[in-house]
Automatic annotation (TrEMBL):
It comes from the Bacteria. The chain crosses the membrane at residues 37-61, 73-93, 105-135, 142-159, 165-185. Its EC number is 2.7.13.3. It catalyses: ATP + protein L-histidine = ADP + protein N-phospho-L-histidine. This is histidine kinase. Pfam families: HATPase_c (PF02518), HisKA_3 (PF07730). Residues 323-411 form the Histidine kinase/HSP90-like ATPase domain. Residues 211-278 form the Signal transduction histidine kinase subgroup 3 dimerisation and phosphoacceptor domain. Keywords: ATP-binding, Kinase, Membrane, Nucleotide-binding, Phosphoprotein, Transferase, Transmembrane, Transmembrane helix, Two-component regulatory system. InterPro entries: HATPase_C_sf, HATPase_dom, Sensor_HK_TwoCompSys, Sig_transdc_His_kin_sub3_dim/P. GO terms for molecular function: kinase activity.
């Protein structure tokens, strides 16, 4: 036997084995509510079908009493067994769809024997097709085709005329094609959703890494300034003090301190050089909290309606906190301009022990935003606040606008 034929034989054997005796995993519900709705619908259908089955059996029993030659108690009992098997299949459909199909299929295949050879029961066939669609949507294509092939067997066994058998065959094939089409569409949607989620995750991570690199570059400038001042002060201390007041050991300590600071500065620049490899060096001083009014003035010149509430003379804050506050306000103003053009913007800056509190709130958009795409500025703002041990909250405002609020500790530990 050729390898292709052996592979096809194995695939068919695996599909048949899985359909007949294979285990099935628990269904993956989208939500608890969806699972509860499915169970409730299946239970209701089973109850209604059971009531109809009992009514049918009672009618058959009365008919048998009135017409002794119309049937036998054994046939009525067999029909009752078939009907209750169909009820069990409906009840099992949400949790065990493949098991439900097996039960309904056996009811259709063996039902004519239990009912005295009266042919296929239309209700049982209908339930089998419904259960088949539900089970086939969760099975691979090979198993779907195998189930479809099995369902053709009762039609050609119990229908003695070829025309009705051909009709039943066409119906089964039609249900199989419908199930295949719906399953392919569902799988394509699921794959697209996974790819979209994966792409969004990668974009968020990339944006977060870029923002961290930017924070590191800015903090490098701040720390480098302080380290340079340490080097200068340590090396010039013996000359700035009065002659004779600095002993030789102390002078050597100052020299060692300056050398250590210079080495630390060199190592830090070498390490941060990697972060500057993909960005041009910035020669301008890093922004600070006192530069926020200039930022608001620039936004006003661009046409934005911005109101600023900020103490005229803010107390000195750490350089890292000042940079973070400036960047958060800058990004919030940028987002407001993109997503709510023409809306009024209110910026509040409050500096009081032990933190700097920021609030940027814009009203609803006066026109259609030119940029409807989702940005990643919020991730960067949250990262800046988290680096300082603070927090940032952003979300819709009660009036339909958007609010960004942050708290940056003045002396908080870096998280």
């Amino acid at each position: 036997m050729k390898p292709q034929k052996r592979g096809l034989t194995r695939a068919v054997g695996r599909a048949v084995r899985q359909v007949l005796v294979g285990r099935e995993p628990a269904p993956a519900w989208r939500s608890p509510g969806a699972a509860q709705a499915a169970y409730a619908a299946a239970l209701l259908a089973a109850v209604l079908l059971a009531a109809a089955a009992l009514g049918g059996v009672m009618l058959l029993a009365r008919s048998f009493g009135a017409h002794p030659h119309s049937g036998s108690p054994g046939h009525s009992l067999g029909l009752l067994v078939v009907l209750f098997a169909v009820v069990a299949a409906l009840a099992l459909t949400p949790r065990f769809p493949l098991m439900a199909w097996r039960i309904s299929y056996l009811a259709v295949l063996l039902g004519p024997l239990a009912a005295g050879g009266r042919g296929l029961d239309g209700g049982a066939v209908t339930v089998m097709l419904v259960v088949f669609v539900n089970a086939g949507l969760r099975r691979p294509r090979a198993q779907l085709w195998t189930m479809q092939a099995f369902m053709l067997i009762p039609a050609w066994i119990w229908i003695d005329r070829w025309a009705p058998a051909a009709v039943v065959t066409a119906v089964v094939l039609g249900f199989g094609g419908l199930t295949e089409g719906i399953g392919a569409w569902h799988r394509a949607r699921h794959a697209l959703a996974e790819q979209t989620q994966r792409a969004d995750t990668l974009r968020d991570r990339s944006a977060l890494l870029e923002e961290r690199a930017r924070i590191a570059r800015e903090m490098h400038d701040v720390v480098a300034h302080h380290m340079s001042m340490i080097v200068v002060q340590a090396q010039t201390a013996p000359y700035r003090l009065e002659a004779g007041t600095v002993s030789e050991p102390v002078a050597r300590e100052f020299a060692a301190l300056g050398e250590s600071a210079r080495e630390a500065l060199t190592e830090m620049r070498r390490l941060l050089g990697v972060l500057r490899a993909d960005a041009p060096p910035e020669h301008a001083p890093q922004p600070k909290l006192a530069d926020i009014p200039d930022l608001v003035h620039t936004a006003r010149r661009a046409g934005a309606r911005v109101a600023l509430s900020m103490p005229p003379q803010t107390r000195a804050v750490p350089a890292g906190v000042g940079i973070a506050a400036y960047r958060i306000v800058q990004e919030a103003l940028s987002n407001a301009g993109r997503h709510a053009p023409g809306a009024a913007i209110e910026v509040l800056v409050d500096v009081r022990e032990p933190a700097v509190e920021l609030s940027v709130v814009n009203g609803p958009a006066a026109g259609r935003p030119p940029d409807q795409g989702g940005g990643h500025g919020l991730a960067g703002m949250r990262e800046r606040a988290a680096q300082l041990g603070g927090w940032l909250r952003a979300g819709p405002a009660p009036d339909g606008g958007f609010a960004v609020r942050a708290r940056l500790p003045l002396t908080g530990a870096v998280s």
